[in-house]
Design the sequence.
């Protein structure tokens, strides 16, 4: 299970461990450096004390006598006051190179080991850190040293003292973080519980009091999605109801024509009934096609845009609808603005649907022998499509109803979906649709949309 709490805890644990390792390494490095500096300083101080003591005593006490006293005090295996005494050593020699004093545990020194300064000395399984100091006045040379494990033990103790609280505190910290995350996720769990308890058909907004700021965008997104679902279902229900209402009459008419054709004894009456039946089927087919087109255009999904040639596309659609105008002895004109761009971006088939519905309405509602003008122009950064006719026109008070679904106008009504389809296409292209009086005396339909579509 992909738990948010576990993901946060793993990340926090990783950060804590990484931080502890980095701090432990830094502590170890710093402790080692400081211990080295401190013990080197002590070696240097011990060497100066010995050489100062031996050099100053020469006026009152021979150095050999003082050295003998040091040898007697240390002995070969003296009784140690502290266990670290066996890990510290010294050796003194005079100007002739003779050893005049030494501790019992001093390592074997070679002439190369008497170079002044600090140096490391490896003896068998022991490693020593030594310091050599020479006195030009007395001619004495002192070597003082200590085993490296003294420093290592001290560094280990310092490091353990630094890391031990972290090793104990990290599990406690993780427990507190686990509880804190659980407390912080309570509002999210409460939201999930409310969503699970909702009825499947409930689309009411989700309201949570005292919601943290981080969850407010989630609540807003859920409420926006619920509102979109509510609008979608309402639109679908309204569309289904309207479609069922509109299809009831064509189907009833088709049934009557079919019964008349079956009952007709005269071939002429039967042919007339079949002709009416075919027209009814064509009208029902056209109605279903328009309804499907409108349903597809109602989809709010991402638009697909392709490049089309506007003037060429309009000319092809006008030529396709020209036989309908010629059948009614109508004069159909088309004019394209030369300043139009060679290509514009639109949804596939949208320009054809615009002209088929607008020009089809104009042909249907213009009297025989009438006149229809189609013009495609460029206005600034917009494309303007206008269709004028010299028909009876539409009163200004009734023009708004023409955009309603299944509302038809005139003595030869259609399905009443043409302008609804046009309006939806215009909306999807961020354009405008207007109905005005035409200079020809009828109705002018103007459609404008931006040249640049995103």
Sequence:
């Amino acid at each position: 299970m992909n738990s948010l709490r576990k993901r946060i805890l793993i990340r926090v644990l990783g950060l804590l461990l990484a931080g502890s390792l980095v701090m432990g390494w830094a502590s170890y490095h710093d402790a080692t450096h400081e211990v080295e500096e401190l013990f080197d300083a002590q070696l240097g101080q011990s060497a100066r004390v010995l050489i100062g003591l031996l050099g100053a005593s020469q006026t009152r006490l021979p150095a050999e006598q003082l050295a003998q006293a040091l040898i007697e005090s240390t002995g070969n295996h003296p009784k140690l006051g502290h266990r670290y005494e066996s890990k510290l050593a010294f050796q003194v020699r005079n100007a002739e190179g003779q050893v005049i004093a030494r501790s019992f545990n001093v390592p074997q020194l070679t002439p190369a080991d008497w170079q002044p300064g600090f140096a490391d000395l490896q003896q068998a399984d022991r490693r020593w850190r030594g310091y050599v100091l020479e006195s030009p006045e007395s001619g004495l040379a002192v070597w003082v040293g200590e085993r490296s494990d003294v420093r290592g033990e001290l560094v280990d103790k310092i490091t353990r003292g630094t890391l031990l609280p972290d090793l104990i505190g990290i599990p406690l910290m993780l427990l507190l973080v686990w509880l804190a995350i659980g407390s912080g996720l309570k509002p999210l769990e409460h939201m999930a519980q409310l969503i699970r308890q909702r009825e499947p058909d409930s689309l009411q907004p989700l309201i949570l009091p005292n919601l943290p700021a981080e969850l407010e965008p989630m609540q807003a997104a859920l409420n926006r999605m619920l509102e979109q679902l509510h609008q979608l279902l309402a639109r679908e229900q309204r569309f289904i109801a309207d479609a069922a209402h509109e299809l009831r009459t064509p189907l009833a008419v088709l049934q009557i024509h079919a019964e008349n054709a079956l009952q007709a004894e005269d071939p002429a009456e039967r042919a007339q009934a079949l002709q009416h039946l075919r027209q009814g089927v064509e009208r029902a087919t056209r109605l279903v096609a328009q309804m499907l087109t409108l349903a597809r255009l109602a989809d709010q999904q991402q638009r697909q845009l392709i490049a089309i040639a506007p003037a060429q596309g309009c000319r092809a659609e006008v030529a396709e609808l020209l036989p309908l105008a010629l059948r009614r002895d109508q004069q159909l004109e088309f004019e394209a603005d030369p300043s139009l761009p060679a290509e514009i971006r639109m949804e596939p088939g949208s320009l054809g649907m615009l002209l088929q519905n607008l020009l089809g309405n104009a042909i249907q509602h213009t009297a025989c022998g009438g006149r229809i003008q189609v013009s495609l122009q460029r206005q600034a950064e917009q494309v303007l499509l206008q269709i004028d006719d010299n028909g009876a026109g539409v009163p200004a008070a009734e023009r708004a109803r023409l955009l309603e679904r299944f509302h038809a106008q005139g003595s030869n009504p259609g399905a009443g979906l043409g302008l609804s389809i046009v309006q939806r296409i215009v909306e999807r292209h961020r354009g405008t649709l207007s109905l005005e009086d035409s200079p020809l005396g009828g109705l002018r339909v103007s459609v404008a949309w931006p040249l640049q579509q995103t």
Remarks:
- Residues 382 and 451 are 5 Å apart (CA to CA).
- The first strand starts at residue 88 and ends at 93.
